[in-house]
Amino acid sequence: MFRKKHFTPHRRPPSFKPQRRDIRQLLWLAPLLLLAGALLDPSLIEPVGPLGATEEVAATFTRCGPGRGSACVIDGDTFKLGDRKIRITGIDAPELAEPRCPAEAALARRAADRLLVLLNEGPFVMVAHRLQRQDRRGRDLMVIRRDGKSIGGQLMDEGLAHRYIGSKRSWC
């Protein structure tokens, strides 16, 4: 009788040490992923072409409250324009409605007052990212610019807002 032999090759165990080729691919992939992330974050790079929707605004703003106009400032990073609430994307200002400490309340009033002044300095442009138009509270997310300069960036430079990175930091 004829018996079959099973051939089993002698293989080396797999190596988990990264090969030179793998490292080169990773070096190409990392900058591409960073660039893609920056393009999708309108607070880092203004949306261009089909990703951005631009709107010019020329209105006189007041502080929000009873009997106020259709354009008013709610707090240091949010304002109302007609029936819409606009949240400046990329920044986080102290809360005016429910401050956690007296220092936050004082800074929130200063941030809201400064935003009011900045918005009333003349026409500005609002840029919405087509992939992220609203936050979970239904506010329109916009980058606000005048003469190519970010109003949100100016608030951060003046210490009246933090860079928003997905969670709030304490102002107390």
Automatic annotation (TrEMBL):
<dbReference type="InterPro" id="IPR035437">
    <property type="entry name" value="SNase_OB-fold_sf"/>
</dbReference>
<feature type="domain" description="TNase-like">
    <location>
        <begin position="73"/>
        <end position="161"/>
    </location>
</feature>
<dbReference type="Pfam" id="PF00565">
    <property type="entry name" value="SNase"/>
</dbReference>
<protein>
    <submittedName>
        <fullName>Thermonuclease family protein</fullName>
    </submittedName>
</protein>
<dbReference type="InterPro" id="IPR016071">
    <property type="entry name" value="Staphylococal_nuclease_OB-fold"/>
</dbReference>
